[in-house]
Amino acid sequence: MTHASTLSSPAAHQPRPAALARWLWAVALLVIIVVGVGGITRLTESGLSITEWRPVSGVLPPLNEADWIAEFEKYKQIPEYKEINLGMTLAGFKAIFFWEWLHRILGRVVGLAMVVPLAWYAWRRAIPAGYGVRLFALTSLVGLQGALGWWMVASGLEYRTDVSHFRLAAHLLTALFLLAGLVWTARDLDALARDTGARPARFTRGGIAVIAILFIQLLLGAWVAGLNAGFVASSWPLMNDHFVPEGIDWAGGPWLALTNDPFLIHFLHRWWSWIAGLALLLFARRLSRFGAKREAGLLVAVVAVQMLLGIWTVVSGVSMWVAVAHQVVGAILVAIAAAALHRLGRAAA
């Protein structure tokens, strides 16, 4: 048989759910890494160091001293430099530039890791029926994530010394939604690889409730990061010797305080975590009753680690590496929760 006939043979065009699942698991790991680097970028105040969005030419960092000086001059024009970092050295600029550049590069890697294999599997007709649209949507979500990243950065280039915490939340939550979608689809494909008649998992009412509770906690966490609200108190369980912290600005009304006041948002994030933790523990208990004791135990362990890291972040005065660990474990928790929700969703399918 010739090479050409081999390529066109029916065997060359059979669905390959197991291979597709492995691909999505690998991309999910990449997303977790990007979330971690994004946390470092935020905590080192590096996010505004690159003032332009150049998807192609921006892949290369400055290659000589003249290029570095040119980039530094652009940074000197924005409010963050003028009001916070005035007098920064070129060496200091290079340090913050690195993390933002790395974050953007990894984002491009995730994009390539979705687009190239998707095109290959589509050309080989290896995508099972009903999954093409879903995989295309996940790939498009990576592009949306990049656009949201620039939209976030743009909010801090003219009138602010920092990015909008609303836009930061949109950027982070989209990444976590992508992560959950990758895990959910990978598990569907794993099931299909074992049983060609397997149907996609469905959302249960209890699962939707867990998602809603977890979403609120993730949103509050993103706002805490965007407003630097972790720095308003470094004690636990009380905040500066008070259960409800002093310093909440109610002058603009409850809604403005709820969405913009760092004291109130920090307070809500630290105590809503107990509601989210309880919801996940109850979910783990139900999961265990379905025979998934290993997944239930893993979910409980990650919830415990995440809550301890949250407390440690506070009492350490937002130590960078503790805070980054908190963000990374948060992403891992989203992935594990998605996998656990899928397990129960399989029973409902």
Name its key features:
12 helices; mainly alpha; disordered N terminus; 349 residues; 2 domains; single chain; 70% helix
Structural overview:
- Its cofactor is heme b.
- It comes from Sphingopyxis bauzanensis.
- Pathway: Porphyrin-containing compound metabolism; heme A biosynthesis; heme A from heme O: step 1/1.
- Its main location: membrane.
- The protein is mainly α.
- The protein is flat.
- The protein has 12 helices and no strands.
- Helix 11 packs antiparallel against helix 12 (320-348).
Largest sheet: none
Question: Average pLDDT across residues?
Answer: 92
Number of helices: 12
Order of helices and strands: HHHHHHHHHHHH
Give the number of DSSP strands: 0
Protein name: Heme A synthase
Organism: Sphingopyxis bauzanensis
GO biological process, one term: heme A biosynthetic process
Pathway: Porphyrin-containing compound metabolism; heme A biosynthesis; heme A from heme O: step 1/1
List the helices and strands and how they pair.
Blueprint: H1 3-8, H2 17-43, H3 65-75, H4 79-83, H5 90-123, H6 132-154, H7 165-194, H8 205-226, H9 254-260, H10 262-289, H11 293-315, H12 320-348
